[in-house]
Amino acid sequence: MATENMKLRVKTGEKDGKNFWDDCGVVFINRNPAGDITSIQVRHNMFPGVDMVAFPKRADDQQ
């Protein structure tokens, strides 16, 4: 089973044509061997200690 991790970033400002970003969380996408998404969890720094899910986490998901 594969797990993908993606950073959540928010634009915090712009100066002289340069953008500034803040890492604000992580998205974990769990897939089965066939490549189907089995669950998605989101951790965000505005909600420390809270796992938000798009699909319920399964016992066999890594992470």
From TrEMBL:
Q: Which domain of life is it from?
A: Bacteria
Q: What is this protein called?
A: Uncharacterized protein
Q: Specify the taxonomic lineage.
A: Bacteria, Pseudomonadati, Pseudomonadota, Alphaproteobacteria, Rhodobacterales
